[in-house]
Design a protein that fits this description.
The chain is α/β, with parallel strands linked by helices. The protein contains 14 helices and twelve strands. The strands form three sheets. Strands 2-1-3-4 form a four-stranded parallel sheet, sandwiched between helices. Helix 1 runs parallel beside helix 13. The protein binds 1,3-dihydroxyacetonephosphate and iron/sulfur cluster. Iron/sulfur cluster binds next to loops. Catalyzes the condensation of iminoaspartate with dihydroxyacetone phosphate to form quinolinate.
């Protein structure tokens, strides 16, 4: 990524001039992640940072729902995304109207939604969660509402994976991540046959048979931390490909094996796009002001939960 040094230097200069920060998700390419990211991390970390950032402009190195989350938490700031097409199959698979229908069907049952959702879905939500805290949030919601059931939407696989770890009954939805749903247990069997000592880490958006065949499950940051802390000889990250490219800098002795899948939405964000975004102030992400207070309450409740 050092090949991109002139563009990286230009972006870092512009950020200072304009009081802007780049919040870069773990799936950004290394030249973004290492070169221009002021804060790098998982969805939970990026949301926390948006809430406390003192910059005037947030450039979201990530997908649209992440930029909306930043705007919800920091409505007075300008939030820019370098490419408006950077979506997410989970976020596009459910609407606020869908959530209202679910609530009619299960009155009194708390609604937990994954942050990978649009602002209108968050506005219908009691508390958000991410892959880093889903079990904890579900148990908190059940206790607060005094129920033994919780609605956890829209990712059917995250819901199944949470259900395995709690006694709370989970009411799910049929959404899926188009990147993680493509992995299957035979991918892991193949890698274990070829590399018997390899450690297998999987993101909780993967189907349950993949999780069952893995050694560790966690958010993107939890997976990165596992590798840097344990420094296994060989590892496979069952998630987006840029993860391995980024973590390798902190784990030079670790061999990263395949498979991995690319997220076409995350890959819409490029260094050139970030530069253009800073120069032209594009593309501004706005959220209907009527939705912001309710959506902010759902995200803030999650952020305020003890770590
Ligand atoms: P994390 O919150 O684990 O970073 O996941 C976000 C995401 O989009 C994974 O596909
Ligand atoms: Fe959405 Fe999946 Fe891409 Fe994450 S990897 S942004 S969940 S489509």
């Amino acid at each position: 990524w050092q090949l991109h040094a002139p563009l990286i230097a230009a972006i870092n200069r512009l950020k200072k001039e304009k009081n802007a920060v780049v919040l870069a998700h773990n799936y950004m390419t290394p030249e973004i992640f290492h070169g221009v990211g002021d804060y790098v991390g998982d969805s939970l970390g990026l949301a926390r940072e948006a809430a406390k950032s003192e910059a005037a402009i947030i450039i979201q190195g990530g997908v649209h729902f992440m930029a909306e989350t930043s705007k919800i938490l920091a409505p007075e700031k300008t939030v820019l995304i370098p490419d408006l097409r950077a979506g997410c199959s989970l976020a596009s698979g459910i609407t606020g109207a869908d959530v209202r229908l679910i609530k009619q069907r299960y009155p009194g049952v708390p609604v937990v939604t994954y942050v990978n959702t649009t602002a209108d879905v968050k506005a219908e939500t009691d508390i958000c969660c991410t892959s880093a805290n889903a079990v904890q949030v579900v148990e908190w919601a059940a206790k607060q509402w005094g129920t033994d059931r919780v609605i956890l939407i829209p990712d059917q696989f995250l819901a199944k994976n949470v259900a395995r770890q709690t006694d709370i009954k989970i009411i799910a939805w049929a959404g899926a991540c188009e990147v993680h749903e493509r992995f299957n247990a035979s991918d892991i069997a193949d890698v274990r046959a070829a590399h018997p000592g390899a450690v297998v880490l999987a993101h909780p958006e993967c189907p349950p048979d993949v999780i069952a065949a893995s050694d560790f499950t966690g958010s993107t940051t939890a997976m990165a931390d596992y590798v840097t802390k344990n420094q296994p000889k060989q590892v496979v990250l069952i998630t987006e490909c840029s993860m391995a490219d980024n973590v390798t800098a902190d784990a030079p002795g670790v061999e990263f094996l395949r498979p991995c899948n690319l997220c076409p939405h995350m890959k819409r964000i490029t260094l050139q796009g970030i530069y253009d975004s800073l120069v032209k102030h594009q593309y501004e992400v706005t959220v209907d002001p009527e939705l912001i207070p309710r959506a902010a309450q759902a995200v803030q409740r999650m952020i305020d939960m003890p770590p």
